[in-house]
UniProtKB/TrEMBL annotation:
Family recorded in the similarity comment: Belongs to the catalase family. HPII subfamily.
GO biological process, any: response to oxidative stress
Protein name: Catalase
Keyword Oxidoreductase annotated: yes
The species this protein was found in: Gracilibacillus halotolerans
Length: 687
């Protein structure tokens, strides 16, 4: 496992084969003449063709018909779920050979690098919703391997809301907006969703994760994600092993507070997109280490939960996570539509050495993903789009269809044949051909579910037990807010009647908050807890944290420039915020360029503040803005650095303890102490 800090990691300048392939499709229009699609140079692109200046339009205006006809067809059906997303490119490097458990080529040797593209997304909201909604999130990674494309699709929780794929349309119908008014957007805080939760106890586990801090991530760069489904690794000897995957963000797992997330949805709906893009532009490449959890086939029934149940997690303390490689996102997309909107993931896209268990939801997904891509992208030929196209050549007997791009010159497109010597030919497994693992199956054809899936509360109780007091407080707030939006008293009551099985105190507090009766009974008798389920022990760094520098003219140049240099040296991002754009001038006449104004920025956009103060034309407005920023940062437990000229904006009183506030006056270690505070990120003991 790589033990370097994020700042110490360097990405070597190596050629990325996928980017070379995409370069063939990248077009630079700047500096070129405007033409039609047929390369006819355009002389006028501002008026339609008319019979006289005030006359009717003419049908012969082929230029207008081409331009507007394309405009009318620019949009494609958005994804039913995961519609709002964003992508980046990068590479995956294998740390160690996994040849003992899988023959997948990209996992065979340490140092092996594989090009990837990655897409993050929310679930409920449409394309036009906002990034910071409380929701589960998806992370899809497409590996462009030498054996073909491998798609690894993950979500930001280790458990799913359904245990059978037949239920997925139901939960999404309940989760999304109503049919009559298309309200609400990007939230499950409404009657229909919580009615579903109350009547489907299997859903409570994942919902509890969503109501915790895990449901409102700080950044895509700080998002842990799990495969949820159980796959198979198969080695060269044909031996199979159950496997689940997890991505561990190198920067640690961090979250927003509920009120922050809601406000950010209005202040900056693109908060996560911008954060990802800006970090890559700054060279602070997001990194995630890939872990695998392995269970021998013969141990399938050795646990007190069903390892094929997607609504159950595999505890790291029982089934250790082995870190096997690192994903680095080091290039932003050039075109959102062609590189993010058109990227198509499918868990059925596997390579030799990776197979499927009998996990029922996984079995259902093997159909659902390809079918939805056929519909959304309009053709079975979506695999030929540049972003989906494999690096290695592919040959088969498919032909025709909408938007076919390949020019197959063969006349033989069937198998077997004699006219083309039976080509394209099949490949034996020992030479690289894909072979399904010969799983043993038995039983009667039946619609049903294994009774081993029916423990709905034990693991939910374990998750609750594993949270710290502050995490529990946030989870109670999440339940209280969402259920508080539910109009039906009976639905609210039914939900707290479910919650009591997880924790009686949790259920009673929520019941009091949402105006229903405290439930009868108590929680399941489980005291187990796992540290891996809490964010409390996650790594913390100042690296890439965002600091707002609140400043006017007349600042102490030496003090401020030393502080800003220290932030830069530690990889901390900062923005200069003042009353107007332009520059602010220091005590020695030197200047700093202003990045944002108090009007165009917000304290919610920053992880910490550096309060400098100074002089501007409208001091009353400046002071009010400064106080507002400081109050918000203090309220949300964020680090605050105070320059010697900014002390008037924050003072010790009997009502505060200034935890996480670092003063520069008479403090030679201010820079170091402020960076350490930024690394801690939140000061929950603040009063």
């Amino acid at each position: 496992m790589d033990d370097k800090t994020p700042k110490e990691r360097k990405i070597p300048n190596q050629t990325n084969a996928k980017q070379q392939q995409l370069d063939q499709y990248r077009i630079q229009n700047k500096g070129k003449p405007l033409t039609t699609k047929q390369n006819l140079k355009v002389s006028n692109d501002e008026e339609i063709l008319k019979a006289g200046e005030r006359g009717p339009a003419l049908m012969e205006d082929f230029q207008y018909l081409e331009k507007f006809g394309h405009f009318n067809r620019e949009e494609i059906p958005e994804r039913v779920v995961h519609a709002r997303g964003y992508s980046a490119h990068g590479e995956f490097e294998t740390y160690q050979s996994l040849s003992h458990v899988t023959k997948a080529g990209f996992l065979q040797e340490a140092g092996k690098k594989t090009p990837i593209t990655c897409r993050f997304s929310t679930v409920q909201g449409p394309k036009g919703s906002y990034d910071t909604a409380r929701d589960l999130r998806c992370k899809g990674v497409k590996f462009y391997t030498e054996e073909g494309n491998y798609d690894l699709t993950m979500i930001a929780m280790p458990v799913l809301i359904v245990q059978d794929p037949m239920k997925f349309p139901d939960v999404i119908h309940a989760y999304q907006s109503k049919q009559d008014d298309d309200i609400p957007t990007a939230t499950g805080a409404h009657d229909r969703f919580w009615d579903y939760v109350a009547t489907n106890p299997e859903s409570l586990h994942m919902v509890t994760w969503i109501m915790s801090d895990r449901g409102i991530i700080r950044s895509y760069r700080m998002m842990e994600s799990w495969s949820i489904n159980t796959y198979l690794f198969v080695n060269a000897e044909g031996k199979a092993t159950f496997v689940r995957f997890v991505w561990k963000p190198v920067l640690g797992v961090h979250s927003l507070l509920q009120d922050e997330a809601i406000k950010l949805g209005g202040i900056d709906p693109d908060f996560h997109r911008k954060d990802l893009r800006e970090a890559i532009d700054m060279g602070a490449y997001p990194e995630y280490e890939l872990g695998v959890q392995l269970i021998p086939l013969e141990d399938e029934f050795n646990y007190d939960f069903d390892i094929l149940d997607p609504a159950k997690f595999w505890p790291e303390e029982l089934i250790p996570v082995q870190i096997v490689g690192k994903l680095t996102l080091n290039r932003n997309i050039d075109n959102y539509f062609t590189e993010s909107e058109q990227v198509a993931f499918n868990p059925a896209n596997v390579v030799p050495g990776i197979g499927f268990s009998n996990d029922p939801v996984l079995q259902g997904r093997l159909f659902a993903y390809r079918d939805t891509q056929h519909h959304r992208l309009g053709s079975a030929n979506y695999d030929e789009l540049p972003i989906n196209k494999p690096l290695c050549p592919f040959h088969n007997n498919t032909r025709r269809g909408f938007m076919r791009q390949r020019i197959d010159i063969d006349q033989i497109n069937y198998h077997p044949n004699s006219l083309a010597n039976n080509t394209p030919y099949t490949t034996p497994p020992e030479q690289g051909g894909y072979e399904q693992y010969p799983k043993r199956v038995s039983g009667h054809v039946i619609r049903g579910r294994s009774p081993s899936f029916n423990d709905f509360y034990t693991q939910t109780r374990i998750f609750w037990n594993s949270l710290t007091p502050i995490e529990k407080e946030h989870t109670i707030e999440g339940f209280s807010y969402q259920l508080g939006k539910v109009k039906s008293e009976s639905v609210r009551q039914h939900n707290v009647n479910q919650l009591v099985n997880v924790d009686r105190e949790l259920a009673c507090i929520v019941a009091d908050n949402i105006g229903v009766q405290r439930p009868e009974g108590t929680h399941v008798n489980v005291s187990t807890s796992y540290p891996s389920l809490s964010q409390a022990s996650t790594p913390k760094y100042a690296f890439t944290q965002k600091v707002g520098v609140l400043i006017g003219d007349g600042f102490d140049t030496n003090e401020v420039k030393h502080a800003l240099t220290t932030l830069q040296q530690n990889g901390v991002f900062f923005k200069i915020v003042s009353s107007t754009l332009g520059v602010v001038t220091g005590s020695d006449g030197s200047t700093l360029k202003v990045d944002e104004t108090f009007l165009t920025s917000s304290p919610y956009l920053f992880d910490a503040l550096y309060v400098v103060g100074g002089q501007v034309k409208n001091m009353a407005k400046f002071n009010a803005d400064m106080v507002h920023f400081v109050q918000v940062a203090y309220k949300y437990y964020k680090p605050i650095g105070v320059a010697s000229t900014g002390q008037s904006f924050i003072k010790t009183t009997n009502e505060n303890n200034l935890a996480g506030v670092v003063f520069a006056a008479n403090n030679a270690n201010f820079g170091k102490e402020f960076v350490n505070a930024i690394a801690q990120q939140r000061f929950w003991d603040r009063k």
